[in-house]
Amino acid sequence: MAQIIPFRAFRYDPEHVSVDQAVTQPYDKITPSMQDRYYAASPYNLVRIILGRRQASDHPANDVYRRAAADFRAWRSQGALRQDSAPSLYVYSQNFAAPGQSGERERRGFIALGRVEDYSAGVVYRHEQTLAKPKADRLDLLRATRAHFGQIFMLYEDSGEIDSELTAATKTAPIIELTDEYQVVNRVWQVSDPAVVASVQRRMRDKKLIIADGHHRYETALNYRNERRAADASAPDAPYEFLMMTLVNMNSPGLVVLPTHRVVRGLESFVVDDFQHASREFFEVEEVDPSLDGQRAAAVLRDKGKSGATLLAVTANRAFLLSKLRLTGAAARFFAGFSSQQRELDVVQLHKCLLEGVLKLSEESIREQRNLSYVRDADEALGQVRSGKADLACLMNPCRVQQVRDVAFAGEVMPQKSTDFYPKLLSGLTIYALD
After folding, report:
1. pTM for the complete prediction?
2. What is the full DSSP assignment across 101-118?
3. Is residue 232 packed enough to be buried (19+ CB in 10 Å), middle (13-18) or exposed (0-12)?
4. Pairing relation of β-strands 242-249 and 152-156?
5. 10-residue block means of pLDDT along the chain (435 residues)?
6. How far apart are CA 292 and CA 395, in angstroms?
7. SS3 415
8. Which pLDDT score, from 0 to 100, does residue 360 have?
9. DSSP state, 7?
10. 271: buried, middle or exposed (CB in 10 Å: 19+, 13-18, 0-12)?
């Protein structure tokens, strides 16, 4: 059963700090230029904690993690961060226009603490693979600061009862309202009514949770919990047994998943005719207009994708639609042990057939991104190929939420960067301090 509890969040005090100059995108979405901009925005910008600048003079007693912990202590003592007086849930709404889509949407969820569960408990489910290096980095930060600064994005499923329960709280003015750099309007309302909180807790008890975004940070919290348990086995409800989550109904019409395209570069030898021939071992191959832009590519993929998984492979001056997976010969070998629901995923076919089968990239090289980069914007991916900076752009349709659900509940995982839930949850709106 999913156990969620209210908490007394630390929040930026708007009398001391301009909140819109202090919160950030999630740490793994912060580019070097964004980091510079965040540093310049405010001396209290959260980037100084979640993705601080490393220095040549760093040593174990003064490194990026120790500076983060020192800043967190200082900001609390200075009053830049203040703790709410009452244990609360926090309704979180985001109004946005999704890239490449028309019309405005609202995605609404709520922020709470959720118990950290082993995957084997059948309460929390993952859907993506994780990498060791990001988890080691986040664990060092958590050890130093003993706090969670961003929320894990969790999905649950119901018919809207929990959202309805919390709707009354949004009739008043939000405690936070800001527009981020992607023109997403972020609003937060505090819900402290014990009766409402208790009702939401009851409704959540029979829910299973799927990690939509934040796999590395969730597994970091697991590792940290296990470390602390080893030192203090007598504290079953200790603060480290919980972490901060934003919980969103997977049936919400505001839930948007974008594709993350792959760009392949630095291949020792890449001959387009050989690529086309090798692709026919796995797919039906149809050559299409190579001058298409990102919008047209999305339309072609969307139309062809109605009949099944479809990929679009684009070189400097040619383009190929790959569809109708051939589950014989080489493909059968690559998919040995894969369930039917995994085989049907565009991203799995891209990784197993195109990257490993056709281009002969190893799983290790893909994990380490030796020849691979991930790009959300199709025009950017196409531009890299046409400018000669890359050999091949591999474009695909977004994964559907139902596919995420089925894979997760089956105990299976997709390749890294399989889903891109849009927009991202801002970091720093609420902070959970374990001390």
Report:
1. 0.94
2. --S-EEEEEEEEEEE---
3. exposed
4. parallel
5. 96 97 97 97 98 91 94 98 98 94 92 97 94 92 97 96 90 96 97 96 97 96 95 86 98 94 94 95 94 94 94 96 88 82 92 94 91 94 96 96 94 91 97 95
6. 12
7. coil
8. 94
9. B
10. exposed
Q: Name the CA radius of gyration of the chain, rounded.
A: 23
433: enclosing H helix or E strand: strand 432-433
Closest CA to 166 of 244, 95, 112: 112
E-assigned strands of 97-226?
105-115, 124-125, 147-148, 152-156, 176-179, 185-191, 209-213
- State which H helix or E strand residue 310 sits in: strand 310-314
Backbone angles phi, psi at 373, to 5 degrees: -135, 160
The SS3 of residue 120 is: helix
- Residue 213's identity, in one-letter code, is D
- Are the C-beta atoms of residues 94 and 186 closer than 8 Å to each other? yes
Torsion sign across C-alpha atoms 131, 132, 137, 140: positive
C-alpha–C-alpha distance, residues 426 and 26, integer Å: 6
Give the pair of three-digit tokens for residue 86: 């009452």
Question: CA dist 193 to 5, 295, 430, 432, Å?
Answer: 13, 47, 18, 20
| C-alpha to C-alpha distance for 354 and 400, rounded to whole angstroms | 21
Alpha carbons 376 and 261: distance in angstroms, whole number: 6
